[in-house]
Amino acid sequence: MKVISLFQFASAAAALKEWAPAGPSDSRSPCPGLNTLANHGYLPHDGKKISMSTFVSAITEAFNFDPSVGQFLASGAFQVFGLNPANDTLDLETLNTPGRLEHPASLSRHDQPGGDSLHVDPERVDAMLADSPHLFLDVVSAGVSRRRTFLESGRPNLTETIWTIMFGESSLTLIAMNNGTFPAAGAPTEEIYNIQAPKDWVKIWYEEERFPEGWTPFARSINLTELGAVGAVIRSEFVKS
Ligand code: HEM
């Protein structure tokens, strides 16, 4: 039995590209998702001069998201920075520019100006984990975390676009670090409450920016509509909290 599970672990791990932490001259972003992709080599490890199509294929391949997800996220970024998706490129650290996609009340980073919005603060990650009484995060705890960080940041004035991005980021946390309980396509909204992101996986992903041992991408690809549906439920929990 033990031999089988070790074998299963080895084959799941073999499917992932090798991980190496960022070096001092590597460019990294305030995004745990993109930094993980660069650390694993799905994006260029130096995090520099990344084209739109490279972003989309890295996100699609590593997470097994539908290409609509990577397309939506990357094209939004290129648009915000006034870049031509056909031939311009982006360094990851550019994404830390305040007033574009970077925003206050992050789950794992401090606010600009004055705070480090680029690197993870493990204390903030622990606070997010403490928002759930379970061994996992879910849509209820994600709503609580959004409320807590909003209040801790002094109720910043945020545009509707930034709110949508923030609920999308909460949704991506639950979906990216999911233990396989994602509802089947077309399942009732209530099943979104069963999505569980194990705390030990969330901690490793945010703090070390790598895929945890035992993690595998979903067997079926998750699309933009499903991502948005999870974000909408988190927003409803935020309103209640
Ligand atoms: C080209 C695609 C992407 C772009 C341009 C992007 C950009 C960003 C930026 C600028 C932030 C920082 C927001 C802040 O100030 O807190 C961020 C945060 C975040 N991103 Fe991404 N991202 C992308 C893809 C992804 C993917 C694929 C995932 C996960 C699968 C992801 C998960 C997250 C999460 C969970 C946060 C919240 C971090 C926090 O609040 O501390 N992102 N992203």
From TrEMBL:
Keyword Metal-binding attached: yes
GO molecular function, one term: metal ion binding
Matching PROSITE patterns: HEME_HALOPEROXIDASE
Domain of life assignment: Eukaryota
Residue intervals of the Heme haloperoxidase family profile domain: 15-229
Region ranges (Disordered): 96-118
SUPFAM superfamilies (UniProt xref): Cloroperoxidase
Pfam families for this protein: Peroxidase_2
This protein's record includes keyword Cell inner membrane: no
Signal peptide limits: 1-15
Bias (Basic and acidic residues): 100-118
Alphabetical keyword list: Heme, Iron, Metal-binding, Oxidoreductase, Peroxidase, Signal
Cofactor entry: heme b
UniProt-listed PANTHER family: HEME HALOPEROXIDASE FAMILY PROFILE DOMAIN-CONTAINING PROTEIN (PTHR33577:SF18), STERIGMATOCYSTIN BIOSYNTHESIS PEROXIDASE STCC-RELATED (PTHR33577)
Similarity annotation: Belongs to the chloroperoxidase family.
Name the UniProt record assigns to this protein: Heme haloperoxidase family profile domain-containing protein
Organism per entry: Bionectria ochroleuca
